[in-house]
Amino acid sequence: MSDKKDLPLAPAGLGRRSFINTAALVGLTAGVAACTEKTGSAATPAAPAPAAPASAHASAGAATHLKPGELDTYYGLWSGGHTGDMRVLGLPSGREITRIPCFVPDALVGWGITNESKAIMGTKPDGSLKYTVADTHHTHASYKDGNYDGRYAWINDKINSRLARIRLDYFVCDKITELPNVQGFHGIFPDKADPVDPAINYTTRVFCGAEFSIPLPNTGTEDSGKYRSMFTCVDAESMEVRWQVLIDGNCDLTATSYDGKLAATNQYNTEMGAKYEDMMSSERDACLFFNIARIEEAVKAGKFKTIGTSKVPVVDGTLEANKDPKTALTAYVSVPKNPHGVNASPDGKYFICAGKLSPTATVIELSKVLEWFDGKLEKIDAAIVAEVELGLGPLHTAFDGRGNAYTTLFLDSQVVKWNVDKAIAFHKGDKAAKYVVDRIDVHYQPGHINATQSETKAADGKYLAVGCKFSKDRFLPAGPLHPENEQLIDISGEKMVLMADHPVRGEPHDFIIFKRDLVKPKQVYTLDEFPLAVKDPKESGVFRSGKKVTVKMTSQAPAFSLREFKLKKGDEVTLILTNLDKIEDLTHGFAIPNYNVNFIVNPLETKSVTFVADKPGVFWCYCTHFCHALHLEMRTRMIVEA
Ligand code: K7E
Ligand code: CUA
Ligand code: CA
Question: Which candidate, 98, 139, 99, 91, places its Cα nearest to that of 500?
């Protein structure tokens, strides 16, 4: 404990740690790849926390282990990274329960194979998928009264600027929207209330930040001085793009206030540079605030333009156009060098920007930002109530609902627990305020972090999950690709206790963890959900209209309603399959050899596929999902006559 007595060091005393220049960053990156050695030497403001007693580890570790048949107490919704899906975990066990395909085809459920999923994913005129790659980063769920309401979750695709919505009744993706006029769509956050109507205390919008600047319209000009970035609002129900804000600099992560009045994005490229040296040439960048009510008024009043072929209203949020606080739509709060995450504290008072290339976190008081918009605060930067040292490479912050924040230190491979009120007191001049409460080593180079219920008013400070980007020596080696390491930490006490390591396939970024009773998942569909449902086996058959053929079929273990069905070579076939089994967990599959068809139908679910019967022959269509003692016998013949 005594090694923490001198904490925190004044910024001036930090030497190399207070400022990361290009050379130092390149050196540190090489260090990440080359060795497993962690920082925490004499140069570190606080040495790593002494190891917790072995007994504490043992008991905490035991708490993650559920006995056979026991259920987890929390759900985790994890972004899947390159796999383009959302992963559902149970916590504290860390067991992966399912993956919800969104942006990328999935061979288990037939995502990207069935007509219904293709309609959601988007197709080219020839009917093939518009995109088959994605890069998901951020996942958040809809709110009511400051807590998750179990309606929806959203996830972004950074590569193709898409936002997907997941219905949390069936845990399926039901809509995908491609944002116009942007590239590098990164941060998302749903709003938590309406800025003008107090009766609307739930999510109606999703805010999306675009990280890369592009020419608008995108003419392909090389002159990066003309590139601009956008902040986008998507309607939570219709999933249509409501409006966009043209900004200076760029967007990165996104946060929203509990009163619905403000949204914000951290900006690391206020320089609007096209090369990384240029992007880190200024000592300070910004946290950019959006006045939601004013933006919506401006859109209503027609004070917008449109860009290129997009019809989305674009309002002007640039610095030059927003100097007068009384009319400003945006406010640029200065924060140190290339900040990363911005996170909203569960008491609703603060947004916290992590420094990334600065070893600091910046605490911004929201009531002061609102005062500035009212013309009552002279300088917007006066909304900063703390800017305190945490360690090297601060990225993301979580909360325990007891006034503490937990920030990942990417370069230090640590999580630092710090007290927000004490940080504010320290910043005000009380140099005796010991705001750093604890530090713990994580393995290794952590990115996102989240605590149970963290970004809700019901933050309960039980567990903390940390997404470590490198796992190095933590798992059995299995070829050159290492998994990421999701670590679970017990934060119920004063000191953090490491509970478990979990390998995850590359690579999740953000995730949320919430109490299991906040969602009410359904396990059996109703036939009425599906316009094409074949409600009775008697409706089965082959229905021909020239070359267009519809095959209607049902499944009931262990048989499909048609024993065989005949087609002619060249037929354009739409096959509709309804699973009439209504018992929970009774899922069937349907595969057609050599036709690239496989999908599943859950209880009372209907799916369809369309293909050209271009190969004559007999094809045994069989059930691919184990359903019955006669599962292997569950087949039907597709006979394509030459
Ligand atoms: Cu920090 Cu894309 Cu949220 Cu990754 S971003 S870690
Ligand atoms: Cu039906 Cu296996
Ligand atoms: Ca910068």
Answer: 91
